[in-house]
Design brief:
Two copies of one chain form a homodimer. Chain A has 18 helices and eleven strands. Chain A has 547 residues and is of the alpha/beta class.
């Protein structure tokens, strides 16, 4: 064996019982402890310092080039790397090609910076490694989850003290459930609504037990539908597909000029369906903060209509829910307390780490329609939270929300929420001021859309030109906005997203818009102006408007 | 204002923009950094040290007394506590009443100790806070997820190098998906199987779009079923309920003396269903490590039968999947490569923190049956992983598994797996040796069940007594085992779970058994003997057998 081989041999990593066994114990001696802390320090600050050097949102490397690096599909038999090297590689090799969602210049999606203590809280949850599916693997954490569910339920529904005293630790009733995210929350709400509409009755076991086809026969219907405005999140279509209702049976209701459910259209649709005895309505969904425009539906009006017609009223407040903590803006969600079920995301405006959703129910008994038991856990009448949840095993996200609310208070959260809404308003004013841009949807909450629309196009559009020419201009603008957004994203200094709307103020079919979500407290009007400047610059260099 | 009030006033916490804003920035100066590290140190070692003092699994406090402490349902307006106090309270106030699942004496469930580096990896995932629903909030992490999915796919299906080269970074195809846990994995697999059976065809949009009722009409059936042995996990019933098939349409197949699907019964059931043209079979599910007994179905035989009948073959390997990494025991899963879909949990025998599941598909195109798009993300043809997943937003668990496999290698995991299986075998031998206990199901993997059955009962049962007396004794034994398990759990030094089986070697109806899962590398035969000793002691003190 030559020297080189010996050197190679001595650094070769081998799987070793003693070393492995040791990783299951927090070591006692000072040196070993210091090493673990050193790794944590690297994680806490290494990432930060690295991103200080590389201010961009992501490194300039094409997806294709990047994916070439990750093509080996064999798991190594022996260890490939030591922990220290894995951590270093995550920080130096992987992080720069991940997306710096914490950057104040990243204003395109509902993912943003989180307070540093959230990372600490997530670490505690991982270290405790409780499994909330059952009391036997969580004990006090199941109890805390029930408490925090009651607290947020109270924020939404504002029932009496005695109502909450009765239900907060009641093992028979359920005020809500922690889930993976907004999609699972919407799915859970519609699952419950489906089972409530097609419930068990004399000689019939209910849709959950017997299936959709048998339930339709029993109830004499041929179709079940869910009504939501065309701003509804795509998770609703997915939920209808999964639940066996069929994604095409999500009926899209038109919206008014503020992108809110058009009440006349909703009323008309319900009354038409009611004439047809072969169609059942599982739910009407109201939106409190639509994904694309942040618009909020007239929740009180929808609630009234649902009550009159005995329809389950679900509110998708995945985005907007936490606005209830802001004294200045909670009125925007008026009527949410009349909902039968409400979706709220933890990883959105509760600023929790990925991923955490929640679903709440007005009626503490309604989740009985989705309960399951097993012989070895989740016995009837136990506190086991897994009895009434879509998921089985799941992590203790409730500990994070509970702690965060203690650290922040509703007023702390309100500071973040108010900052977002007010900064978005300032940004809208700035867009209006600039002749180069057109505001498409003003921010009702902290989301707005706009587009690049240089003045020569705007002048022409304002003139009395024919529809053909209008459409032609619109197509050109769509192409411009698509291109500028893409170049800006790939350059990596800042990021706004884009989507397609059919706004009333732009009568053409499909309008490509730029979408801005202001949730990062470090995002201010100065930064937003820089983003506009960059877009103008990209446009000018790319489209040579004077050529 | 008196002195006391002044003191109170000065310590009152208020929500404050400057302080809050600061929590979004990793601070630059040494003192602030030191504080953050100090908190992490507290989290890493405070918990450990505390649990060293309190060796038990959980503190002795009744559920009722505990829940009395968590009844306040108002969220505080102002901050209630500083971060430091929240952390201290989590360690000193909450952890002792959580469950010490990391204790080697906790052998009752599939939740256990995890290597400490898993906590570091989870912290990195939280600090990066990527959202894998779309490339724009994850970039390289989506690419790494595709790579690790290919690696585990290869471990299961062992296809050719060229197959993996073609699919590893292919944006059109999908080898699997990270999900919340085993339940969502099973649900996703059956969702895909349902949509494949009731697929779109001329003039029909498919079950996903049109719903179950329309699909049944189109395909001329009245019922769709899923076949699995009666050891199947309850998530399968739940999935059938959610998918609109109906939970009663999970057809339970009887098991052989080793608690494996009885092939004669399965064949018979399939051929009977085939005679009835009004029933469709969505899937046959094989189990690779049943929750209650760890038994593994004859996967090759089921695969063959499914292939002959053109039925989707799903394998629930939530527990057993990682055994494929053990050279000594992977043969126990022979036939898994013929599955159409496979569930594996990350938080079980991959020793990842709560919660992480995965589902894999043999056919890289089959997940097209569950794809959804939106205008602002997940556009067709993009790398956005959210196009084909039940969840929307989700965290980057793939980074944890990828890193863990680099640190451990398959051989490292094999050490853990072999230890579990071999320790369970030793434990079974010990139970057989003790006249006080009866081994009910020997460990095929690392799970076994047994019961307390003092020799006087066993002698009587072995004699030729009538069925009535046998049942009477069995009832007495059931009561004894229930009580001893409960007292042991509540005492808090050790924990085995209990379930109810209908084993062939005990012909009576329902047999309460004690269930032991050996996955903690610190659990050895000495500890397991102590657990048996404690059970014997509890029995003797409680039932006074000599009185």
């Amino acid at each position: 064996m030559n020297k080189q081989n010996i050197a190679k041999e001595s650094t070769k990593l081998v799987a070793n019982w003693k070393a492995l066994h040791r990783t299951f114990i927090r070591l006692e001696d000072g040196a070993a402890r210091a090493t673990l802390v050193k790794y944590m320090e690297q994680i806490l600050f290494g990432l930060h310092d690295f991103l200080q050097e590389h201010v961009g949102i992501t490194e300039e490397i094409s997806l294709k080039a990047l994916s070439e690096r990750y093509k080996n599909t064999k798991i190594s038999e022996n260890p490939e790397r030591k922990l220290a090297d894995v951590i270093t590689n995550l920080i130096r090799g992987i992080a720069p090609n991940a997306v710096n969602v914490a950057s104040p210049y990243f204003v395109g999606h509902m993912t943003s910076a989180i307070p540093f203590f959230m990372v600490h809280l997530k670490t505690i949850v991982a270290a405790l490694n409780q499994n909330v599916v059952k009391l036997e693997t969580s004990k006090v954490v199941s109890i805390i989850e029930k408490q925090i569910l009651a607290k947020v339920h109270r924020l939404i529904f504002d029932n009496s003290e005695s109502f909450y005293n009765k239900h907060v630790q009641n093992t028979e009733t359920t005020l809500g459930c922690f889930v993976e995210g907004g999609t699972t929350a919407n799915l859970t709400a519609l699952w419950v609504a489906r089972n409530s509409l097609l419930a068990p009755r004399d000689g019939f076991g209910g849709v959950e037990k017997e299936g959709i086809s048998a339930a339709f026969r029993e109830y004499g219907i041929e179709r079940a539908v869910i009504l939501v405005s065309r701003m509804g999140h795509y998770s609703l279509r997915k939920a209808a597909g999964i639940l066996g209702i069929g994604s095409r049976n999500i009926i899209a209701i038109d919206v008014d000029e503020k992108h809110r459910t058009d009440m006349t259209m909703l009323e008309k649709t319900i009354s038409e369906i009611n004439k047809d005895s072969k169609t059942g309505i599982i739910s009407v969904v109201g939106i409190a903060g639509s994904t694309e425009t942040g618009s909020v539906d007239p929740l009180s009006n929808i609630a009234e209509l649902c009550a009159e017609n005995g329809i389950h009223f679900h509110v998708d407040a995945a985005w907007g829910g936490p606005i209830l903590m802001s004294a200045a803006y909670r009125h925007l969600l008026n009527g949410i307390k009349y909902a039968d079920s409400v979706t709220i995301d933890g990883h959105k405006q509760f600023y929790m780490p990925m991923s955490c959703g929640m679903v709440y129910f007005k009626n503490p008994e309604i989740m009985n329609t989705v309960s399951y038991h097993a012989k070895y856990v989740n016995r009837p009448g136990s506190v086991d939270l897994g009895i009434k949840s879509l998921a089985g095993s799941r992590e203790a996200n409730s500990l994070i929300l509970d702690s965060a609310l203690k650290i922040m208070g509703t007023k702390g959260y309100a500071l973040l929420i108010d900052h977002g809404i007010e900064t978005a308003k300032k940004f809208a004013a700035e867009i209006i001021k600039r002749p180069f841009f057109q505001l498409v949807t003003p921010p009702e909450l902290n989301i707005l859309t706009y587009r690049i629309c240089p003045s020569r196009f705007r002048t022409e559009l304002a003139a009395n030109i024919d529809a053909n020419r209008k459409n032609q201009i619109n197509k050109t603008l769509n192409a411009i906005n698509r291109t500028v957004q893409q170049i800006q994203r790939e350059t990596g200094n800042s990021f706004v997203s884009r989507t397609t709307l059919n706004p009333r103020n732009i009568p053409e079919e499909e309008t490509v818009v730029l979408r801005c979500v202001v949730m990062n407290p470090m995002t201010d009007i100065k930064i937003l102006n820089e983003i506009l400047d960059e877009q103008e610059k990209i446009y000018k260099s790319r489209f040579k408007p004077d050529a």
